[in-house]
Amino acid sequence: MATDESKRRAESLIPKFQFERVWNQEDGGKRITLYGQIDAQPALLIFDRAPIPEAHEYLRALPGSLRSITNLSNNDIYAWFLGSGGPILTANGNNDGNDRYADYKLSLICPCTAQHLKKHSRQGYRYVTETPAIYAEHVRPFMRANREAGRLNWVYNIIEGRKEVEDVIYRTPLGLGDEEGFLMLPNLHWDRQTIEALHLLGIVERRDLWSLRDLRKRHIPWLRHMKDKLFDATVKTYPQIEKDQLKLFCHYHPTYYHFHIHVVHVMLDATATQSVGKAVALDSIIEQLESMAGDEETGMDTVSLSYTVGEASDLWTDIFEPLKRSGTASPPQ
Question: Which of the two residues, 189 and 322, has the higher pLDDT score?
Answer without folding.
Answer: 322
